[in-house]
Specification:
The protein is of the alpha/beta class and 197 residues long. The protein contains four helices and eight strands, in the order H-H-E-E-E-H-E-H-E-E-E-E. The chain is globular. Bound molecules: copper (II) ion (CU). Copper (II) ion binds at residues 115, 180, 182, 185, 189.
Length: 197
């Protein structure tokens, strides 16, 4: 009798083990298929700007975003000698927004050797500088609400870093300059802002 029961339970275990195994291969197949079809429409949407590289999945799409963003940023260094390290900031028209990072590689405080970046039309530069000087250091040497200013950073001292994001569409008509509005610095610390394709 005991042997008979053992046989039955063995058979039941064997049966359930068998049916579990049978259902296993079918399950993973379904989620994989739906995950693939979900990922597929998302990838082309995100990787649309880079054009080619229709490639495969989420990973290439993320990588494609990095170089695109990299083209819409620039870094300008300034120092204790009242200098920027560039005379030209090139901004791609393709950028929705463009971020300029200003670094002060010197050690002097902003009260004595402060720098910023101000962007305006070339012909507005003198007026912006004059009004900025009147506005004072606490206003970062930029007149509040100055409509001639397309964008500007705050004033920084040695070892500091700041940034400003501008809309390239606002640089379309005329020629634009970037400069430091700390009193007296604009004569040396200036350059062109150039729109490029
Ligand atoms: Cu300066």
């Amino acid at each position: 009798m005991k042997a008979y029961l053992a046989l039955i339970s063995a058979a039941v275990i064997g049966l359930s083990a068998c049916s579990q195994e049978a259902s296993k291969p079918a399950e993973p197949a379904a989620p994989t298929a739906s995950a693939a079809s979900e990922a597929a429409p998302a990838a082309p949407a995100e990787s649309a700007p880079p054009a080619d590289a229709p490639a495969s999945e989420a990973v290439p799409a993320d990588n494609a975003a990095a170089p695109a963003a990299g083209n819409c940023v620039a870094t300008v260094e300034s120092n204790d000698n009242m200098q920027f390290n560039t005379k030209d900031i090139q901004i791609s028209k393709a950028c929705k927004e463009f971020t300029i990072t200003l670094k002060h590689t010197g050690t002097q405080p902003k009260s004595g050797m402060g720098h910023n970046i101000v962007i305006s039309k070339a012909e507005d530069m003198d007026g912006v500088l004059k009004d900025g000087a009147s506005a004072g250091a606490e206003a970062d040497y930029v007149k509040a609400g100055d409509a001639r200013v397309v964008g500007h950073t705050k004033l920084i001292g040695g070892g500091e870093e700041t940034s400003v994001t501008v809309d390239p569409a606002k640089l379309a008509d005329g020629s634009y300059k970037f400069y430091c509005s700390f009193p007296g610095h604009g004569a040396l610390m200036k350059g062109d802002v150039t729109l490029v394709n």
